[in-house]
């Protein structure tokens, strides 16, 4: 990997990278201070990608920690938001599941906050003050997204967050319907996409998306997925491909006469 | 049987079924380039003996699950990586050169596990790395994530 001139006297840069990529994040943060070359290796974008893919596809039989799926729990304690996490395997297999505290960027619970979506260990949070936060609990860092001027003051807003593999970029999609939260479908839709790489919001043609989306977003198979508003009796799931920016719909099964899903 | 020659001119005979765990040698055999002795200019005899020991033990890896020898293999692997840093790195380099995926995994993970909880000072000393960061640069890294430098697991011993 590049000409980093690693100083392990016994090992080439390539093999040092092989070993470092198998270390947990806490160790890597610590070992950035071993030497200049270790710092350069660990901060390298390609290395970070390699580390993520190794940890996510952790089927290494020599490694004991297999838990790559976690559940994030947002709770409230007096007037403070309380984030906890537990591993999915613990939920299934342990008699008692222990939840661990996460040091969150948001504490003040007087303002409503919701978890929009998570992807590759990154969590996207939106607050009622319209500020949105990208949080990486593993390295305990977060950053605020820059705001942008919305077309309407009052909107019904839905967000999505995911990874665009084609452009190697993380993206936020914001869908804003004119009017208050309680209104029905409206033609006045504004769709904005934020690219983490270029740090700008861009406007996308939203004329297609008149139906309101419901609930939180799910990122999987490189697409964002939302449920549609159930009161409209619209049995579809709407997906947005972050790579080619195309909308698609998936029909939900029929539940029978007069029955709705929620 | 396949003959391998280390860089200090020692020859070793290995069963073909064992040696083809090395992608590199497997390709050579398939291409008909392994008719006589295969010279391995990057590997000394001491390291090659270790590698062959691994290959022979893992010869029927696929069958291990059926015959209940998995635990036995696991125990062998644990014992196998119980070596000094220099020796471990020699095996990693050999496994990389010979392209033996499983051996590479085993040794790199073992190295990572040994380093994981070590203090920065201990890592430098164990791996004979000179610290070329300035005091300010080092402090900046610590300030960026002070929690990574704390915790009961942090081990300052050198071994």
CATH architecture designation of the largest domain in chain B: 2-Layer Sandwich
H-E order of chain A: HHHHEEHEEEEEEEEEEEEE
Strand content of chain A: 35-45%
Q: What is the global morphology of chain A?
A: globular
* Secondary structure tally, helices of chain B: 9
What's the total number of strands of chain A?
15
Please estimate the helix content of chain B.
Answer: 55-70%
In round numbers, the mean pLDDT of chain A is: 80
**Uncertain spans of chain A:** 1-7
Measured between the Cα atoms of the first and last residue of chain B, the distance is 39 Å
Give the helix/strand class of chain B.
mainly alpha
Number of domains of chain B: 2
Rounded radius of gyration of chain A (Å)? 21 Å
Taking the sheet with the most strands of chain B, its summary is: 3 strands, mixed
Give the number of domains of chain A: 3
List the chains of the largest interface with their residue counts: A-B, 31 and 38 residues
What class would the helix/strand composition of chain A place it in? alpha+beta
Overall outline of chain B = elongated
Q: Which regions of chain B have little confidence, pLDDT < 50, spanning 5+ residues?
A: none
Briefly note the CATH topology name of the largest domain in chain B. Answer: Potassium Channel Kv1.1, Chain A
Task: Tell me the major beta sheet of chain A.
Answer: 4 strands, antiparallel
